[in-house]
Protein backbone atom coordinates (compact mmCIF):
# COMPACT_ATOMS: atom_id res chain seq x y z
CA UNK A 1 0.00 0.00 0.00
CA UNK A 2 1.59 3.29 -1.09
CA UNK A 3 0.96 6.23 1.22
CA UNK A 4 -0.03 9.54 -0.29
CA UNK A 5 1.92 12.24 1.53
CA UNK A 6 -0.26 15.21 2.30
CA UNK A 7 2.19 17.13 4.47
CA UNK A 8 0.38 17.72 7.76
CA UNK A 9 0.24 21.03 9.61
CA UNK A 10 0.55 21.45 13.35
CA UNK A 11 -2.21 23.01 15.46
CA UNK A 12 -0.82 26.23 16.95
CA UNK A 13 -3.33 28.05 19.15
CA UNK A 14 -6.26 27.07 16.95
CA UNK A 15 -4.54 27.63 13.59
CA UNK A 16 -3.14 24.98 11.26
CA UNK A 17 0.46 26.03 10.64
CA UNK A 18 3.26 24.85 8.33
CA UNK A 19 7.01 24.94 8.97
CA UNK A 20 9.96 25.09 6.63
CA UNK A 21 11.40 21.94 8.18
CA UNK A 22 9.43 18.71 8.22
CA UNK A 23 9.69 15.38 10.05
CA UNK A 24 9.03 12.09 8.28
CA UNK A 25 6.52 9.80 9.98
CA UNK A 26 7.28 6.18 9.19
CA UNK A 27 5.39 2.92 9.52
CA UNK A 28 7.56 0.69 11.75
CA UNK A 29 6.31 -2.40 9.96
CA UNK A 30 8.19 -1.64 6.73
CA UNK A 31 9.83 1.74 7.44
CA UNK A 32 7.78 3.36 4.69
CA UNK A 33 7.03 7.09 4.93
CA UNK A 34 3.39 7.66 5.86
CA UNK A 35 3.39 11.45 6.00
CA UNK A 36 5.32 14.46 7.19
CA UNK A 37 4.69 16.89 10.04
CA UNK A 38 6.27 20.24 10.94
CA UNK A 39 9.49 20.35 12.94
CA UNK A 40 8.63 23.26 15.19
CA UNK A 41 11.36 25.59 16.48
CA UNK A 42 11.90 27.04 19.93
CA UNK A 43 10.47 30.28 18.55
CA UNK A 44 7.31 28.45 17.48
CA UNK A 45 6.90 27.11 21.00
CA UNK A 46 7.41 30.57 22.49
CA UNK A 47 4.71 31.91 20.18
CA UNK A 48 2.44 29.10 21.21
CA UNK A 49 2.95 29.84 24.92
CA UNK A 50 2.21 33.53 24.42
CA UNK A 51 -1.03 32.64 22.64
CA UNK A 52 -1.89 30.14 25.40
CA UNK A 53 -1.77 32.93 28.00
CA UNK A 54 -4.83 34.40 26.35
CA UNK A 55 -6.21 30.89 25.83
CA UNK A 56 -6.08 30.23 29.56
CA UNK A 57 -8.26 33.29 30.20
CA UNK A 58 -10.71 32.17 27.53
CA UNK A 59 -10.84 28.62 28.92
CA UNK A 60 -11.37 29.79 32.50
CA UNK A 61 -14.29 31.98 31.44
CA UNK A 62 -16.08 29.19 29.53
CA UNK A 63 -19.20 28.06 31.40
CA UNK A 64 -19.32 24.40 32.35
CA UNK A 65 -22.13 23.58 29.93
CA UNK A 66 -20.05 24.95 27.06
CA UNK A 67 -17.02 22.88 28.04
CA UNK A 68 -19.23 19.79 28.20
CA UNK A 69 -20.82 20.48 24.84
CA UNK A 70 -17.47 20.95 23.11
CA UNK A 71 -15.86 17.84 24.61
CA UNK A 72 -18.89 15.70 23.73
CA UNK A 73 -18.91 17.13 20.19
CA UNK A 74 -15.24 16.14 19.82
CA UNK A 75 -16.11 12.62 20.98
CA UNK A 76 -18.96 12.51 18.46
CA UNK A 77 -16.59 13.54 15.67
CA UNK A 78 -14.10 10.79 16.56
CA UNK A 79 -16.87 8.21 16.82
CA UNK A 80 -18.13 9.18 13.37
CA UNK A 81 -14.62 8.75 11.94
CA UNK A 82 -13.55 5.70 13.96
CA UNK A 83 -11.99 3.84 11.03
CA UNK A 84 -9.88 6.86 10.03
CA UNK A 85 -8.56 7.24 13.57
CA UNK A 86 -7.90 3.51 14.00
CA UNK A 87 -6.04 3.26 10.67
CA UNK A 88 -3.87 6.23 11.63
CA UNK A 89 -2.96 4.67 14.99
CA UNK A 90 -2.09 1.42 13.25
CA UNK A 91 -0.04 2.99 10.47
CA UNK A 92 2.15 5.26 12.61
CA UNK A 93 2.51 2.97 15.63
CA UNK A 94 2.78 -0.65 16.70
CA UNK A 95 -0.83 -1.57 17.33
CA UNK A 96 -2.80 -4.00 15.24
CA UNK A 97 -6.06 -2.78 13.74
CA UNK A 98 -8.01 -4.59 16.48
CA UNK A 99 -5.91 -2.96 19.19
CA UNK A 100 -6.18 0.45 17.51
CA UNK A 101 -9.96 0.22 17.22
CA UNK A 102 -10.15 -0.46 20.95
CA UNK A 103 -7.96 2.57 21.60
CA UNK A 104 -10.31 4.78 19.60
CA UNK A 105 -13.26 3.47 21.63
CA UNK A 106 -11.40 4.23 24.84
CA UNK A 107 -10.55 7.74 23.63
CA UNK A 108 -14.23 8.42 23.00
CA UNK A 109 -15.04 7.19 26.51
CA UNK A 110 -12.22 9.28 28.00
CA UNK A 111 -13.68 12.41 26.43
CA UNK A 112 -17.25 11.61 27.45
CA UNK A 113 -16.16 11.03 31.06
CA UNK A 114 -14.24 14.32 30.92
CA UNK A 115 -17.42 16.10 29.89
CA UNK A 116 -19.33 14.53 32.76
CA UNK A 117 -16.63 15.32 35.31
CA UNK A 118 -16.73 18.99 34.28
CA UNK A 119 -20.02 19.26 36.17
CA UNK A 120 -18.52 17.66 39.28
CA UNK A 121 -15.71 20.07 40.07
CA UNK A 122 -16.99 20.77 43.55
CA UNK A 123 -15.83 22.49 46.70
CA UNK A 124 -16.98 22.17 50.33
CA UNK A 125 -18.18 24.38 53.12
CA UNK A 126 -15.70 24.94 55.95
CA UNK A 127 -16.84 25.13 59.58
CA UNK A 128 -14.68 28.07 60.64
CA UNK A 129 -16.35 28.15 64.03
CA UNK A 130 -14.42 25.03 65.01
CA UNK A 131 -11.75 27.47 66.19
CA UNK A 132 -12.53 29.63 69.25
CA UNK A 133 -12.96 33.25 68.22
CA UNK A 134 -14.24 32.35 64.74
CA UNK A 135 -17.90 31.92 65.64
CA UNK A 136 -18.93 34.73 63.32
CA UNK A 137 -17.21 33.34 60.21
CA UNK A 138 -18.62 31.14 57.44
CA UNK A 139 -17.12 30.06 54.16
CA UNK A 140 -16.10 27.42 51.69
CA UNK A 141 -13.49 26.48 49.13
CA UNK A 142 -13.84 25.93 45.40
CA UNK A 143 -11.48 24.71 42.70
CA UNK A 144 -10.11 26.97 39.98
CA UNK A 145 -8.02 26.17 36.87
CA UNK A 146 -4.27 26.58 37.18
CA UNK A 147 -3.72 28.18 33.75
CA UNK A 148 -1.53 26.61 31.05
CA UNK A 149 -0.68 22.90 31.09
CA UNK A 150 2.19 21.43 29.10
CA UNK A 151 1.58 17.81 28.05
CA UNK A 152 4.27 15.49 26.72
CA UNK A 153 2.88 12.20 25.44
CA UNK A 154 4.35 8.82 24.38
CA UNK A 155 4.08 6.71 21.25
CA UNK A 156 2.39 3.61 22.64
CA UNK A 157 -1.13 5.08 23.05
CA UNK A 158 -0.90 8.02 20.64
CA UNK A 159 -4.58 8.98 20.83
CA UNK A 160 -6.05 7.95 24.18
CA UNK A 161 -3.12 9.08 26.32
CA UNK A 162 -3.33 12.50 24.65
CA UNK A 163 -7.07 12.54 25.37
CA UNK A 164 -6.30 11.75 29.02
CA UNK A 165 -4.51 15.09 29.22
CA UNK A 166 -6.59 17.23 26.87
CA UNK A 167 -10.03 16.11 28.09
CA UNK A 168 -9.48 16.90 31.80
CA UNK A 169 -7.60 20.12 30.97
CA UNK A 170 -10.48 21.54 28.96
CA UNK A 171 -13.09 20.19 31.40
CA UNK A 172 -11.38 22.08 34.22
CA UNK A 173 -11.01 25.35 32.30
CA UNK A 174 -7.32 25.29 31.42
CA UNK A 175 -5.36 25.90 28.25
CA UNK A 176 -3.11 23.03 27.15
CA UNK A 177 -0.12 22.62 24.84
CA UNK A 178 0.58 19.07 23.67
CA UNK A 179 3.97 17.92 22.46
CA UNK A 180 3.27 14.41 21.08
CA UNK A 181 5.87 11.70 20.51
CA UNK A 182 7.94 12.53 17.43
CA UNK A 183 7.33 9.08 15.93
CA UNK A 184 3.53 9.12 16.37
CA UNK A 185 2.25 12.70 15.95
CA UNK A 186 -0.59 12.06 13.50
CA UNK A 187 -3.08 10.71 16.07
CA UNK A 188 -2.59 13.74 18.31
CA UNK A 189 -3.19 16.04 15.35
CA UNK A 190 -6.40 14.14 14.62
CA UNK A 191 -7.50 14.79 18.20
CA UNK A 192 -6.88 18.50 17.62
CA UNK A 193 -8.95 18.22 14.44
CA UNK A 194 -11.84 16.81 16.46
CA UNK A 195 -11.74 19.73 18.92
CA UNK A 196 -11.45 22.26 16.11
CA UNK A 197 -14.54 20.75 14.46
CA UNK A 198 -16.29 20.79 17.85
CA UNK A 199 -15.91 24.57 18.12
CA UNK A 200 -13.23 24.84 20.80
CA UNK A 201 -12.18 28.51 21.01
CA UNK A 202 -8.82 29.36 19.49
CA UNK A 203 -5.75 29.47 21.76
CA UNK A 204 -7.12 26.93 24.27
CA UNK A 205 -5.45 23.89 22.63
CA UNK A 206 -2.22 23.51 20.69
CA UNK A 207 -0.55 20.38 19.34
CA UNK A 208 3.04 21.24 18.46
CA UNK A 209 5.09 18.66 16.58
CA UNK A 210 8.86 18.62 16.67
CA UNK A 211 11.97 17.28 18.33
CA UNK A 212 12.04 17.20 22.10
CA UNK A 213 15.56 18.60 22.33
CA UNK A 214 14.46 21.68 20.36
CA UNK A 215 11.04 22.52 21.79
CA UNK A 216 10.71 20.38 24.92
CA UNK A 217 12.93 22.51 27.16
CA UNK A 218 11.02 25.67 26.23
CA UNK A 219 7.75 24.05 27.25
CA UNK A 220 9.14 22.52 30.44
CA UNK A 221 11.04 25.54 31.75
CA UNK A 222 8.79 28.45 30.78
CA UNK A 223 7.34 30.10 33.92
CA UNK A 224 3.94 30.63 32.28
CA UNK A 225 3.46 26.85 32.17
CA UNK A 226 1.92 26.00 35.54
CA UNK A 227 1.92 22.22 35.18
CA UNK A 228 3.73 19.54 33.19
CA UNK A 229 1.83 16.31 32.56
CA UNK A 230 4.31 13.75 31.26
CA UNK A 231 3.97 10.10 30.29
CA UNK A 232 7.21 8.42 29.27
CA UNK A 233 10.46 6.97 30.50
CA UNK A 234 12.14 7.37 33.88
CA UNK A 235 15.27 9.13 32.62
CA UNK A 236 13.25 11.72 30.69
CA UNK A 237 10.98 12.21 33.70
CA UNK A 238 13.93 12.84 36.01
CA UNK A 239 15.37 15.33 33.51
CA UNK A 240 12.06 17.19 33.33
CA UNK A 241 11.84 17.32 37.12
CA UNK A 242 15.31 18.86 37.30
CA UNK A 243 14.46 21.54 34.73
CA UNK A 244 10.82 22.37 35.41
CA UNK A 245 11.21 24.83 38.25
CA UNK A 246 8.28 25.88 40.43
CA UNK A 247 5.32 24.17 38.77
CA UNK A 248 3.13 21.13 39.28
CA UNK A 249 4.35 17.81 37.92
CA UNK A 250 2.25 14.80 37.03
CA UNK A 251 4.29 11.88 35.76
CA UNK A 252 3.69 8.29 34.76
CA UNK A 253 7.13 6.78 34.23
CA UNK A 254 6.59 3.11 33.52
CA UNK A 255 6.93 -0.08 35.48
CA UNK A 256 8.15 -3.65 35.74
CA UNK A 257 4.77 -5.11 36.52
CA UNK A 258 4.45 -8.31 38.56
CA UNK A 259 1.65 -10.88 38.60
CA UNK A 260 1.28 -13.54 41.30
CA UNK A 261 -0.47 -16.84 40.51
CA UNK A 262 -1.29 -18.98 43.56
CA UNK A 263 -2.15 -22.68 43.57
CA UNK A 264 -5.86 -22.06 44.20
CA UNK A 265 -6.22 -19.81 41.15
CA UNK A 266 -8.22 -20.54 38.01
CA UNK A 267 -5.26 -21.67 35.92
CA UNK A 268 -6.89 -21.25 32.51
CA UNK A 269 -8.03 -17.72 33.31
CA UNK A 270 -4.62 -16.79 34.72
CA UNK A 271 -2.83 -18.00 31.60
CA UNK A 272 -5.19 -16.27 29.18
CA UNK A 273 -5.07 -12.98 31.09
CA UNK A 274 -1.30 -12.88 31.54
CA UNK A 275 -0.49 -13.83 27.94
CA UNK A 276 -2.69 -10.99 26.72
CA UNK A 277 -1.24 -8.67 29.35
CA UNK A 278 2.32 -9.49 28.34
CA UNK A 279 2.02 -9.10 24.57
CA UNK A 280 -0.63 -6.41 24.02
CA UNK A 281 0.79 -3.71 21.73
CA UNK A 282 3.97 -5.80 21.36
CA UNK A 283 4.59 -5.39 25.09
CA UNK A 284 5.02 -1.63 24.73
CA UNK A 285 2.65 -0.95 27.56
CA UNK A 286 3.40 0.58 30.95
CA UNK A 287 0.99 -1.91 32.56
CA UNK A 288 2.32 -4.89 30.59
CA UNK A 289 2.92 -8.12 32.47
CA UNK A 290 6.69 -8.51 32.87
CA UNK A 291 7.26 -10.82 35.84
CA UNK A 292 4.99 -13.75 36.80
CA UNK A 293 5.49 -15.45 40.17
CA UNK A 294 3.82 -18.87 40.17
CA UNK A 295 3.43 -21.10 43.22
CA UNK A 296 5.71 -24.11 42.88
CA UNK A 297 2.95 -26.73 43.03
CA UNK A 298 1.40 -25.45 39.77
CA UNK A 299 4.48 -24.07 38.05
CA UNK A 300 4.81 -26.99 35.63
CA UNK A 301 1.20 -26.83 34.48
CA UNK A 302 1.18 -23.03 34.28
CA UNK A 303 4.43 -22.86 32.32
CA UNK A 304 3.32 -25.49 29.82
CA UNK A 305 -0.01 -23.76 29.22
CA UNK A 306 1.54 -20.30 29.06
CA UNK A 307 4.16 -21.30 26.48
CA UNK A 308 1.54 -23.14 24.41
CA UNK A 309 -0.73 -20.07 24.40
CA UNK A 310 2.19 -17.78 23.53
CA UNK A 311 3.09 -19.94 20.54
CA UNK A 312 -0.43 -19.47 19.17
CA UNK A 313 0.04 -15.69 18.99
CA UNK A 314 -0.15 -14.49 15.40
CA UNK A 315 2.59 -11.96 14.58
CA UNK A 316 2.46 -10.06 11.32
CA UNK A 317 0.64 -7.39 9.31
CA UNK A 318 -0.90 -4.81 11.65
CA UNK A 319 -3.72 -4.10 9.21
CA UNK A 320 -5.00 -7.69 9.29
CA UNK A 321 -7.87 -8.54 11.63
CA UNK A 322 -6.19 -11.93 12.16
CA UNK A 323 -2.97 -10.47 13.59
CA UNK A 324 -2.46 -10.52 17.36
CA UNK A 325 0.82 -8.60 17.51
CA UNK A 326 2.68 -6.22 15.22
CA UNK A 327 6.21 -4.78 15.31
CA UNK A 328 7.87 -2.66 17.94
CA UNK A 329 7.94 1.07 17.26
CA UNK A 330 11.32 0.81 15.50
CA UNK A 331 14.06 -1.65 14.65
CA UNK A 332 16.26 0.17 17.17
CA UNK A 333 13.79 -0.73 19.94
CA UNK A 334 13.62 -4.33 18.77
CA UNK A 335 17.41 -4.54 18.90
CA UNK A 336 17.35 -3.09 22.43
CA UNK A 337 14.92 -5.81 23.54
CA UNK A 338 16.98 -8.45 21.75
CA UNK A 339 20.09 -7.33 23.62
CA UNK A 340 18.32 -7.49 26.98
CA UNK A 341 17.14 -11.04 26.28
CA UNK A 342 20.56 -12.15 25.06
CA UNK A 343 22.22 -10.71 28.15
CA UNK A 344 19.84 -12.69 30.39
CA UNK A 345 20.42 -15.91 28.43
CA UNK A 346 24.17 -15.35 28.64
CA UNK A 347 23.85 -15.17 32.42
CA UNK A 348 21.87 -18.40 32.74
CA UNK A 349 18.24 -17.63 31.83
CA UNK A 350 16.38 -20.33 29.91
CA UNK A 351 14.53 -19.41 26.70
CA UNK A 352 11.20 -21.27 26.55
CA UNK A 353 9.94 -19.73 23.31
CA UNK A 354 10.57 -16.71 21.08
CA UNK A 355 13.81 -14.76 21.12
CA UNK A 356 13.78 -14.09 17.38
CA UNK A 357 14.00 -10.70 15.69
CA UNK A 358 13.13 -9.70 12.12
CA UNK A 359 13.62 -5.98 11.61
CA UNK A 360 11.28 -4.21 14.04
CA UNK A 361 9.44 -7.44 14.81
CA UNK A 362 10.40 -9.39 17.92
CA UNK A 363 8.62 -12.67 18.62
CA UNK A 364 6.63 -13.17 21.86
CA UNK A 365 9.28 -14.40 24.25
CA UNK A 366 9.16 -16.34 27.51
CA UNK A 367 12.14 -16.73 29.83
CA UNK A 368 12.63 -18.61 33.08
CA UNK A 369 15.46 -18.93 35.60
CA UNK A 370 16.37 -15.29 35.00
CA UNK A 371 19.07 -14.18 37.48
CA UNK A 372 18.08 -11.22 39.65
CA UNK A 373 21.10 -9.17 38.55
CA UNK A 374 20.06 -9.11 34.87
CA UNK A 375 18.87 -5.78 33.49
CA UNK A 376 15.71 -7.43 32.20
CA UNK A 377 14.77 -8.51 35.73
CA UNK A 378 15.02 -5.04 37.25
CA UNK A 379 14.16 -2.53 34.53
CA UNK A 380 11.16 -2.02 32.26
CA UNK A 381 11.46 -4.18 29.14
CA UNK A 382 8.82 -2.35 27.07
CA UNK A 383 8.75 -5.21 24.64
CA UNK A 384 7.10 -8.63 24.17
CA UNK A 385 9.07 -10.51 26.81
CA UNK A 386 7.81 -12.09 30.04
CA UNK A 387 9.73 -13.76 32.87
CA UNK A 388 8.41 -16.80 34.79
CA UNK A 389 9.50 -17.57 38.37
CA UNK A 390 8.54 -20.36 40.75
CA UNK A 391 7.89 -19.27 44.36
CA UNK A 392 7.15 -21.19 47.53
CA UNK A 393 4.27 -19.08 48.79
CA UNK A 394 2.53 -15.71 48.76
CA UNK A 395 5.02 -14.07 51.14
CA UNK A 396 7.91 -14.93 48.85
CA UNK A 397 6.00 -13.69 45.81
CA UNK A 398 5.19 -10.37 47.49
CA UNK A 399 8.81 -9.86 48.55
CA UNK A 400 10.09 -10.53 45.04
CA UNK A 401 7.35 -8.40 43.46
CA UNK A 402 8.37 -5.41 45.59
CA UNK A 403 12.09 -5.85 44.94
CA UNK A 404 12.32 -3.38 42.04
CA UNK A 405 12.35 0.42 41.80
CA UNK A 406 8.91 0.57 40.17
CA UNK A 407 5.36 0.20 41.49
CA UNK A 408 2.63 0.95 38.96
CA UNK A 409 0.20 -1.98 38.99
CA UNK A 410 0.18 -5.67 39.85
CA UNK A 411 -2.07 -8.67 39.41
CA UNK A 412 -2.88 -11.48 41.86
CA UNK A 413 -4.71 -14.68 40.96
CA UNK A 414 -6.28 -16.43 43.97
CA UNK A 415 -9.68 -17.59 45.19
CA UNK A 416 -8.72 -17.03 48.84
CA UNK A 417 -9.96 -13.59 49.87
CA UNK A 418 -7.59 -13.54 52.86
CA UNK A 419 -4.59 -13.98 50.59
CA UNK A 420 -5.95 -11.34 48.25
CA UNK A 421 -6.23 -8.82 51.07
CA UNK A 422 -2.75 -9.67 52.30
CA UNK A 423 -1.36 -8.90 48.85
CA UNK A 424 -3.38 -5.68 48.72
CA UNK A 425 -1.87 -4.56 52.02
CA UNK A 426 1.72 -5.59 51.34
CA UNK A 427 2.37 -4.90 47.65
CA UNK A 428 3.93 -1.50 46.97
CA UNK A 429 2.05 -0.46 43.84
CA UNK A 430 -0.55 2.07 42.75
CA UNK A 431 -3.14 -0.55 41.76
CA UNK A 432 -3.76 -4.24 42.36
CA UNK A 433 -5.99 -6.30 40.08
CA UNK A 434 -7.35 -9.43 41.78
CA UNK A 435 -7.90 -12.34 39.38
CA UNK A 436 -6.73 -10.20 36.51
CA UNK A 437 -3.38 -9.22 35.08
CA UNK A 438 -1.59 -5.95 35.81
CA UNK A 439 -2.77 -4.80 32.38
CA UNK A 440 -6.35 -4.03 33.43
CA UNK A 441 -7.49 -0.41 33.53
CA UNK A 442 -10.60 1.66 32.98
CA UNK A 443 -10.25 5.31 32.08
CA UNK A 444 -12.27 6.58 35.05
CA UNK A 445 -10.09 5.05 37.78
CA UNK A 446 -7.13 6.77 39.46
CA UNK A 447 -3.99 5.72 37.63
CA UNK A 448 -0.42 6.12 38.78
CA UNK A 449 2.28 4.42 40.78
CA UNK A 450 4.69 4.43 43.66
CA UNK A 451 8.49 4.69 43.78
CA UNK A 452 9.96 5.49 40.36
CA UNK A 453 6.72 4.78 38.53
CA UNK A 454 5.75 8.42 38.84
CA UNK A 455 4.07 11.30 40.61
CA UNK A 456 0.36 12.07 40.95
CA UNK A 457 -2.60 10.32 39.37
CA UNK A 458 -4.36 10.34 36.02
CA UNK A 459 -7.89 9.08 35.37
CA UNK A 460 -10.20 11.94 34.49
CA UNK A 461 -11.56 12.97 37.90
CA UNK A 462 -8.13 12.63 39.46
CA UNK A 463 -6.36 14.45 36.63
CA UNK A 464 -8.82 17.32 37.10
CA UNK A 465 -7.81 17.48 40.77
CA UNK A 466 -4.18 17.76 39.68
CA UNK A 467 -5.09 20.47 37.14
CA UNK A 468 -6.97 22.69 39.59
CA UNK A 469 -6.23 24.43 42.89
CA UNK A 470 -8.41 25.16 45.91
CA UNK A 471 -9.36 28.74 46.71
CA UNK A 472 -10.69 29.42 50.22
CA UNK A 473 -13.42 32.00 50.77
CA UNK A 474 -14.27 33.23 54.28
CA UNK A 475 -16.94 35.76 55.27
CA UNK A 476 -16.61 37.56 58.59
CA UNK A 477 -20.14 38.42 59.64
CA UNK A 478 -21.10 41.46 61.62
CA UNK A 479 -22.65 40.88 64.99
CA UNK A 480 -26.40 40.37 64.87
UniProtKB/TrEMBL annotation:
Annotated Gene3D superfamilies: Aldehyde Dehydrogenase, Chain A, domain 1, Aldehyde Dehydrogenase, Chain A, domain 2
Keywords tagged on the record: Oxidoreductase
Keyword hit for Oxidoreductase: yes
rRNA processing as UniProt keyword: no
Domain Aldehyde dehydrogenase, first and last residues per copy: 16-473
Pfam families associated with the record: Aldedh (PF00171)
CDD domains: ALDH_y4uC
Chain ranges passing through the membrane: none
Protein family according to the UniProt entry: Belongs to the aldehyde dehydrogenase family.
UniProt-recorded name of the protein: Aldehyde dehydrogenase family protein
Lineage of producing organism: Bacteria, Bacillati, Bacillota, Bacilli, Bacillales
Amino acid sequence: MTAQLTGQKMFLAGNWVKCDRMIEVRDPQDNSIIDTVPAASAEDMMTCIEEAKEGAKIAASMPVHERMQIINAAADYIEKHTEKYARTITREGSKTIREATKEVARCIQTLRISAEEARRIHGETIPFDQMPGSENRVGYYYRFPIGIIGAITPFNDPLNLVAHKVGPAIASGNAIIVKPATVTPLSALLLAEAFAEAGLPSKVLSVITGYGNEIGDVLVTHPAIRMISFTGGLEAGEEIARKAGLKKLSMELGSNSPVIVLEDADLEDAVESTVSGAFWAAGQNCLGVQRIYVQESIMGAFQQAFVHCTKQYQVGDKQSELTDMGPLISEKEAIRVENMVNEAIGKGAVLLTGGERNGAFYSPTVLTNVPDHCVIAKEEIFGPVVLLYAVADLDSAIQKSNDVDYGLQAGVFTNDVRKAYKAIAKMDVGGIMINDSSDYRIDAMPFGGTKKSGLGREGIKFAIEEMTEQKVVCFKLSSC
